Amino acid sequence: MRILREGGVTLLGVLGLLATELPAQVTPAPVAVAHRDSVAHPATTRWQFEQCMGGLTYGAPLKWALAYGMGMVRESDNLDLCFLGAAKVGFGGASFSVGVANSLGPFGSGSALTVGLLRTFDAPMGARAKRTYAGASLHVWPLLALGGEIGYYIPLGSDRVGTPPAKGVVTWSAGFGF
């Protein structure tokens, strides 16, 4: 290898001086490259079948109850929706309902509106025992799935002879989840 000399200075000497003046590590700058995958696409939403909600609640007429809801869920940047079927089983009765739920914010808050059937067991709270009701409920959980529901259900079928007619029932519950 031949070393170039000009005016008594070698090329290697100049490169050595420059190397001491430059930082030891150079941070590369990002390079803009047009690529088909880097093009921004609008957010796409899709429906999928999964759990919408579940929980443990206390209220009337079911007393302590476990709830579980599944349905078609659509998550997007603007609005999360779930068309669901939900079952709730407690010490005072059981219910099955269908409805729509949505999330209201990033902290586990949401709301739902459901319609369904309610069957009471031997000792419901605030309702007639062993009776079937139909009605609707509004569910709200303002923070971290803590919240409640309120609804109104009317009795189905006829009453036995000699008993006063059954009245509608206001349902309510509070707890964790649905």
Concise structural overview:
With 178 residues, this protein is mainly beta.
Topology:
Elements: E1 5-6, E2 9-10, H1 11-21, E3 47-60, E4 63-74, E5 81-90, E6 93-103, E7 110-120, E8 132-143, E9 146-155, E10 169-176
Describe this structure in words.
- It is a single chain.
- By secondary structure, this protein is mainly beta.
- Helix content is 6%, strand content 52%.
- It has 1 helix and 10 strands, in the order ββαββββββββ.
- It has one helix spanning 11-21, and strands at residues 5-6, 9-10, 47-60, 63-74, 81-90, 93-103, 110-120, 132-143, 146-155, 169-176.
- The strands form 2 sheets. The chain has an 8-stranded antiparallel beta barrel with strand order 3-4-5-6-7-8-9-10. Strands 1-2 form a two-stranded antiparallel ribbon.
- β3 and β4 form a beta hairpin.
- The chain is elongated.
- It starts with a strand and ends with a strand.
- Residues 1-12 and 33-42 have low confidence and may be disordered.
